[in-house]
Amino acid sequence: MKEDIQKTIPLPTIRRMPNYLRVTADFLEEGKEWISTTDFSEILGLKPIQVRKDLAFTGLAGKPRLGFEVSLLIKAINDVLGWNNRTDAILVGAGALGSAILGFKGFAEHGLNIVAAFDANPALVGSTIHGKTVFSLDKLDNLVERMGITMGVITVPEAVGQETADRMIKAGIRGIWNFSPVTLRVPDDIIVQREDLSSGLAVLSVKLSENRI
Amino acid sequence: MKEDIQKTIPLPTIRRMPNYLRVTADFLEEGKEWISTTDFSEILGLKPIQVRKDLAFTGLAGKPRLGFEVSLLIKAINDVLGWNNRTDAILVGAGALGSAILGFKGFAEHGLNIVAAFDANPALVGSTIHGKTVFSLDKLDNLVERMGITMGVITVPEAVGQETADRMIKAGIRGIWNFSPVTLRVPDDIIVQREDLSSGLAVLSVKLSENRI
DNA sequence: TAGATTGTTAATCGATTAACAATC
DNA sequence: TAGATTGTTAATCGATTAACAATC
Fold first, then answer.
1. Which pLDDT score, from 0 to 100, does residue A186 have?
2. Which nucleotide is at minimal CA–C1' distance from A61?
3. pTM for the model
């Protein structure tokens, strides 16, 4: 373990990476060759020192006076995030939120390739949402296994969140992007990322009520 | 300022509050009268000490051996979050994500009342999504002002995120729930809460690639 | 009473921020 | 060269965790 000193990236840094990526991609589109900490800090409203600390984790060296080379930085950030490799995924729960996620074009740029959707509702089975076919739930295991899929997106109602996760894991899914408001109980080697809209609303509500007084 | 010692609630604590609320509401439904730190820690996968620290911010006193009184705790958490008061809101961008948000019934329980939706697309104007009418954008200012609405939800594409925020603020909106992947530039007294799906995907991607090796 | 659980005070950990020398 | 910007080392800040006395 001694040589494993290349400290692991802090979670907040990981969360900010997509923002750096987006800004840098905008610079590329505008034909700019260099981007500096100052640029990022102005556009993203962050302290320059924080940007420098974050970008250090890409392993890239900047040039004093110029900053970072746009094309190299894009590559480096994508490498850090693993977004240069395609990850196949399935989605379970083709309701309103599921449909919205199936429709995001941005995910494809981040290497996320949702190959199919599943839903318990027979009325949805067989339909196509944003180009993805909706399958019956009992087709899940076979498809996941056959295609070696490792990531699953859960957009089902709270009541069936856990059983959906169980089913995914049994089929071979290793990482779960959970949009249902449940804390999933999973084995240690399964990664769960929960998106919690209520948390965001809570923060907004508290800040708004603090501010109003 | 000296007497303002009642320390402000840490952001991570605020984010966890809705989880405590949900679990407690489940207990109420099951007819249980008491809920303890141990209960929370098992269901939510948190350390007991963290739960105790968090619940302290409700100002409620627990009873040794029993824990907290379910009905009182629900009330207390809702008070902390300001969810006992109704907040009227509008939503701009009635696309896939906007529709999904209009459809969530959970928000109403959190005091969030989306009264109307707006969209630039004439094809959507006049339609009804989950019971909310979609108006043309030029109706926004008048409606917000007339109804004294303070919260706005932004579910428009990245390119028009900033101008949507500008328009909301000019009309009188004080708090913005921003689902578009832009860092909004707003005056100091405006609260912005950004939901960033890319950040979540980034965390999941990194963890998954670390794990796979 | 015995013991589970609370609440408080102190210790630890990790992220942010500051300071400053190095460099193109 | 002068000065903007990088990268590194140290200081600060805030949240989590630990320890333990208080209590029903």
1. 96
2. D6
3. 0.94
E-assigned strand segments in chain B: 34-35, 68-69, 87-92, 112-119, 128-129, 132-136, 151-154, 175-178, 191-194
| Distance in Å, alpha carbon of A205 to nearest chain B alpha carbon | 6
Q: Tell me the pLDDT band of A5, cut-offs 50, 70 and 90.
A: very low
Would strands B175-178 and B151-154 be described as parallel, antiparallel, or unpaired?
parallel
Query: Within chain B, how many helices (H) and strands (E) appear?
Result: 9, 9
Quickly list H helices, A57-176.
Answer: 70-81, 96-103, 106-109, 140-147, 161-171
Q: Assign residue B130 a region (left: φ > 0; alpha: ψ between -120 and 50; beta: otherwise).
A: left
3-state secondary structure of A93: coil
Q: Bin B82: left if φ > 0, else alpha if -120 < ψ < 50, else beta.
A: left
Report if CB B63 to strand D is under 7 Å: yes
A170 contacts: CB under 8 Å, gap ≥ 6? A141
Q: Give chain C positions with protein CB within 7 A.
A: 3-8, 14-19, 22-24
- Please check the confidence at residue A1 and state whether its pLDDT lies above 70: no
Residues facing strand C, Cβ within 7 A: A 10-13, 46-47, 49-50, 53, 63-66; B 36-38, 48-49, 52-53, 55-56, 60-68
Cβ–Cβ under 8 Å, residues A207 and B189: no
pLDDT at B210 over 90: no
pLDDT digits (tens, 9 = 90+) for A20-55: 999 999 999 999 999 999 999 999 999 999 999 999
CA–CA gap between residue A178 and residue A181 (Å, rounded): 8
Helix axes B48-56, B37-44, angle to 10 degrees: 120
Q: Structure tokens of A181? A: 């408001």
Query: Which domains does chain A possess?
Result: 11-80 (1.10.10.10), 87-198 (3.40.50.720)
